[in-house]
Amino acid sequence: MQYRTGAYLIDPAAFEIRRDGRRLATEPQVIELILLLIKNRNRVVSKDEIFEVIWHNRAVSDATLSSRIKAARHSLGDDGSAQQRIRTVHGRGFRFVGEVEELSGGGEQSPAAVVPQPGGRPSLVVMPFDNLSGADDAHFVDGVVEEITSALSRVRDFFVIARQSAFAYKGRFVDVREVGKELAVTYVVEGTVRRGQDRVRISVQVIDAHSRAQLWSERYDGATTDIFEFQDRIAAQVAGAIHPAVRKAEIELAKRKPPNSLKAYEFVLRAYPNLWSQNQDQNREAIQLLGKALTADPSYGRAHALLAWCLAQEVVYFWCLNPEQGRARALAAVAAAGTSIDDDPTALAAAGAALSQVGDQARAAAYIERALALDHNNAWAWARYGWIALYRDDPAGALQRFNRSLTLSPFDPLAFNTNIGIASGLAMRGAYHEAVGMVREVVNKHPEVTSHHRLLAALLALTGDLETARAAVSQILRTHPTASVAAMRISHPMRHLTSYFDKLVEGLRLAGLPET
């Protein structure tokens, strides 16, 4: 079913709004809000109902709701003064009052075509898990599924079908393709639970609903002495692991599309592998892709936040000779994201990471803490929270946060950077040999990452291995001919931690890094 109001066509299947056949750049969440109001246009929709449906009862400010209502009106040629389509009913909520024509027949797609397109958020459903134990464990199994569904619902990157819809399939054998068609989902989460005495084994897998391909699977074993703690832990680990698995699948899908058909969301997907590479060429490719996303949709808050992160990396990792200008550009990108990212944990983590890299740890912590309040299982936010602790000279606190990140997502694309954080904490405590081992392992596994040769060279020199340290500096100078102690003094994010920073400088001098 499609809906026409005036010159605007709202297409739920394609998850887009068109005017005169031209797609309008509209955030997926704004489209969700418009559809909620249109489908319930015979009544007032309360703010509580909007918070429940759009934000899944996450803590969201009235200002954020007002921002989305304003964007929804703008997308349909309306405004707060005219209120020709979306009317505010003071003290009660909002109602769609514009004329709506429902289009079916030629305008209505068959069930096979209603799987959400990649222009909107990917969607998934957590199916009832198979109970491989006795009937007495049915409630325990349902509890595990409910906790996993709840944890995934807090991830802003995809839409999760409500538990009630999923449980309609309980006790039935169904093909994932049929589930995909009936629920209009892209991915299906399946699992089994087997419990014996005080031990339990849970197996989980994510399947592409169209191709039936398995994207990810894992098995969890543990004691059920404290059932609720066990359910919470499994839910957190599953949510942390599924997030990058789904993101990777969406990235691969976006890569296969011709560039002239890409939307803002898909440009961001294409940017992801580059913006997390910590390689300068790839980082600049990410900046270009995010720029294209913002050309397609200048109000796309996540693109602004991720751009801020890339710009901050230019300053911190790539021997920037004009760091003040770079920091100013990163701060401008954070400001451009504004309040549009208030409910987006990934964007909040990106903005917080950028602020941390440019030296504003107080604001950075506020952004990261907000991200974790929305999604407590966001591995990247935990990792960046660890770096904030390092920048505040708290390596012990940083280690706890880094370990939390790795527990949630051990195969995350940025897990190598988390390990570098752990190594930096060891080096801050003078454990140079142990730190060298960790950094060397990261560099060997990720030779394309050029940003960590600086730390490796310094630590090798401080442990007395000058020959290998000098080889690392030679590698730095081949990639960044302008690298120098002077450049490091104005761009390194730990230059304010004098005792540690002076040791790094000492090591790099021993390794042969030029002064200027």
What does this structure look like?
- This protein has 516 residues and is of the alpha+beta class.
- It folds into 3 domains: 2-109, Arc Repressor Mutant, subunit A (Orthogonal Bundle), CATH 1.10.10.10; 123-253, Rossmann fold, CATH 3.40.50.10610; 310-510, Serine Threonine Protein Phosphatase 5, Tetratricopeptide repeat.
- The chain has helices at 28-39, 47-55, 62-75, 138-153, 163-167, 176-183, 227-255, 264-275, 280-296, 301-317, 323-337, 345-357, 361-374, 379-391, 395-408, 415-428, 432-445, 453-462, 466-479, 485-491, 498-510, and strands at 2-5, 8-11, 16-19, 22-24, 45-46, 86-89, 93-96, 101-103, 123-126, 130-131, 159-160, 187-196, 199-208, 214-223.
- The strands form 3 sheets. Strands 9, 10, 11, 12, 13 and 14 form a 6-stranded mixed sheet that branches.
- Strand 13 (199-208) and strand 14 form a beta hairpin.
- Helix 1 crosses helix 3 (62-75) and helix 10 (301-317) packs antiparallel against helix 11 (323-337).
- It is globular and about 75 Å long.
- The model is unreliable at 105-119 (pLDDT under 50).
* CATH superfamily heading of the largest domain: Tetratricopeptide repeat domain
Radius of gyration: 25 Å
User: How many independent structural domains?
Assistant: 3
Structural class: alpha+beta
Largest sheet: 6 strands, mixed
Helix content: 40-55%
Strand content: 5-15%
CATH class of the largest domain: Mainly Alpha
Shape: globular
Give the averaged pLDDT, no decimals.
87
The count of β-strands is 14
Q: What is the CATH fold-level name of the largest domain?
A: Serine Threonine Protein Phosphatase 5, Tetratricopeptide repeat
CATH architecture title of the largest domain: Alpha Horseshoe
Total helical elements: 21
The parts where pLDDT drops under 50 for at least 5 residues are 105-119
Report, as a whole number of angstroms, the end-to-end distance: 65 Å
